[in-house]
What does this fold into?
Amino acid sequence: MTNLTNYHSHCLYCDGRANMEDFIRFAISEGFTSYGISSHAPLPFSTAWTMEWDRMEDYLSEFARLKEKFADKIELAVGLEIDYLNEDSNPAFFRFQELPLDYRIGSVHMLYSPEGKIVDIDTPADTFRQLVDKHFGGDLDYVVHLYYKNLLRMVELGGFDIVGHADKMHYNASCYRPGLLDEPWYDTFVRSYFTAIAERGYIVEVNTKSYYELGTFYPNERYFSFLKELGVRVQVNSDAHYPERINNGRAEALAALKKAGFETVVEWHHGRWEDMRIGSVSFV
Ligand SMILES: [Zn+2]
Ligand SMILES: [Zn+2]
It folds into this structure.
């Protein structure tokens, strides 16, 4: 197996279910050549799923210890998955920029309701439906527009390397209103967002977290050939919260990328992002 890498990974510093070391040990046992840790970055308030600032030093020193310990077995990189919440809390925030990280993932998980309430929309589909009805008056178009508006603003502000699960809301929004992805306005909207990503040169991850459960990647496979046309560099990440899931959907994603015309994916080697040929993909 080739292209055994993953750079989107959560551990006990945020909402992952095992120690940082457990993920790295599992990656080594699976034959991974490089691996990245990306806990949820602190927000201006406490949540059950993000790291607190007072844990940052421990996070970085634990990573440094493991990097040295496993130096002859695997190349390790440390990052954070940073939310775009608003103009003050986003990947470009100086406190995130000051940190000695190898890379940063930019993501949107939360939106402000018209009443100013912060709503976590990265939920199961039935919860999403309830949230849209309760906080946004059932106006799905408003929610979809707001989600991509925030993502676009994050792309404009910069300060990160990888766009995290670029269109993740598409699954929940399509459950709310089947056929949404085929509505011309939605397609045009999402394509202009990917064009903005391409113009600024970000890496787009193919996030496989839900592939086995829901049968979709983020972004949806229907955009892969468009991303190729735009010249966007891609990588396959599992967004794993459990060590045994770090390899989930990777072979399927690589095969889908190949089918869309991609010949390379971006991997971390020699302390930098490198374009690596997609090798023979086998489903084991
Ligand atoms: Zn995320
Ligand atoms: Zn994540």
